[in-house]
Design brief:
Two copies of one chain form a homodimer. The first copy, chain A, is of the alpha/beta class. Chain A contains nine helices and ten strands.
Chain lengths: 320, 320
């Protein structure tokens, strides 16, 4: 199979890319996400785009595969569990898509894990054999790639570093229903929550106090400018992130850590702070692990979805 | 290869087993551990036993492989890092052993990881495809088996759940040099430390108070008898264990959790308490994970070492 579509289903829009095994991304575009209680209309929207593109290129269905990201947990058997953002219940999305598309090579995986595979294959992870990726955005997503394969896990929970407990004494609930998850401190909203707490608990002057509303970007920008309170806050957040990454390394010990998502635009400054805290929480002989910023930004999903098709097709390991 | 030796190098004794692929363990015995700054004399002791056994059985070196457990971290490349208990520096133990034994199929892995493979292949894990094993003893060891293979990790740190941070606010140091490791609460000595703290911080009457010296066994025995303070302590310990296990499941999501080591003799009572706490710290759709007690006790090491030889020989993947 020389061509495929990488399709990244998000809460607002669906990103689509046409890839060739030889030349990579050929073209990309977006369509809006249709939110209904059943995935059929959305899959039909995707199929319209596929059909139109195949006609334009003079390609047939037998020439292509489709990789789909799913905005929720996907089990080893391919079952997508309740998708809160879009409104679906449990569904075998791959099987549904194969029926609607009339294409037999459809692969489905969780979006954060697919992004990790995208970075592994086409982005920051080139040249390594395994990685853990964290996506710091509205939530904290994650994905593990070992020996070039996405680690899914028995129930589809592998890579969910955002919900590892990093503070067993937290009193506030995470969106997931438990307390003390990394996401409560290291997502964009979590960082703002931490900042508000710090600002209340100290009189330290700070340029942050003149802002009507603080964003995660403000925190990192002010910390870079040397604002002491912003530095305290970003150091606290980095410490918990470094610990959670070290905890994950004590379980899978990958060759590289990749940090992506909107918050990662704080760049090397953030990466260095997190890496320093990681190093203080890991065995001495594992301290020099590679840390890198994600490279593919919003395209990690379509790249990873394409990698899924091209690589699974080779091994014949179709977990849809 | 139809026969192999499984050799478990401990701080006090070396356990040895002769295995056949067809009939499993044929015989087992122990020799004392020679502690010198270099592994050569100890490997010579092991070789004497191998040679004697081969002569007795009329077998040749070409008929067998040897699996060795190493009491320290072993990297992907087979490097055993500083072995504190025995006194060696960094050494490629497999290569040294091949030279001394004159045998080309020698496989080396960390002892806790080998025990996990032993349980996977011959013990509690029969019938599952992946597991995480915890060994609750003087320390807290661990090992991950995925698709029938030990997960070693780039720097040999995979499976070390005992050193994941479960309390970022701990002020006491772990033996590893950092603070807040699971081992500080869930090893036999850690549990006693927690008990002493609980006894100091409350006036609650308890049968524990009449003991001159408390052991982890006392704690679980008294908790089973309904002693309230002992129940508080074991519940606290179980909560941190359950959280750490959930954290590991958010990274690798194995099919089964196996708990072994001396403390696990507290049996189903301990297993149920830990599983309950696990369930409160994981996504709803992952709550019904299989939990089991280890079955092979002190023989997990030799069984795992044998499994390493029989399985790696098949794939030709010799990481010594």
């Amino acid at each position: 199979m020389e061509y495929c579509f990488g399709v990244d289903i998000g809460g607002t829009s669906i990103k689509m890319g046409l890839f060739s095994r030889k030349d990579g991304l050929l073209e990309k575009w977006e369509i809006p996400t249709r939110k209904e209680s059943d995935p059929t209309p959305l899959l039909q929207d995707i199929y319209q785009e596929i059909e139109k593109t195949l006609n334009e290129k003079g390609m047939g269905k037998e020439d292509i595969g489709v990789g789909l990201t799913a905005p929720g947990p996907v089990t080893e058997d391919g079952l997508l569990r309740g998708t809160v953002n879009i409104g679906w219940g449990d569904v075998f999305l791959g099987k549904e898509a194969e029926k609607i598309f009339g294409i037999s090579s459809v692969f489905v995986e969780n979006d954060a894990r697919v992004a990790a595979l995208g970075e592994f294959t086409f982005g920051a992870g080139e040249g390594v054999n395994s990685l853990l990726m964290l996506t710091l955005g509205t939530g904290v997503g994650g994905g593990v790639v070992l020996n070039g394969q996405i680690l899914t896990g028995k129930t589809g929970t592998a890579g969910e570093i955002g919900h590892t407990t990093i503070n067993p004494f937290e009193t506030m609930f995470c969106n997931c229903g438990k307390k003390g998850c990394l996401e409560q401190y290291a997502s964009a909203t979590g960082m703002v929550r931490v900042a508000e707490k710090f600002m209340k608990n100290t009189d330290k002057p700070s340029t942050l106090r003149s802002l009507d509303m603080i964003t995660a970007k403000d925190l990192w920008d002010r910390a870079k400018e040397g604002d002491e309170l912003a530095l305290d806050i970003t150091k606290y957040v980095s410490r918990l992130l470094g610990m959670a990454i070290a905890n994950a390394c004590y379980i899978v010990d990958p060759e590289m850590i990749v940090i992506g998502g909107g918050v990662s635009r704080a760049g090397e400054f953030l990466l260095n702070m997190v890496q320093k805290e990681y190093a203080q929480n890991i065995f001495a002989h594992c301290r020099d692990k590679k840390f890198a910023l994600a490279k593919l930004r919003n395209d990690a999903g379509i790249y990873g979805a394409a990698a899924m098709v091209f690589e699974k097709k080779q091994t014949g390991n179709n977990h849809n």
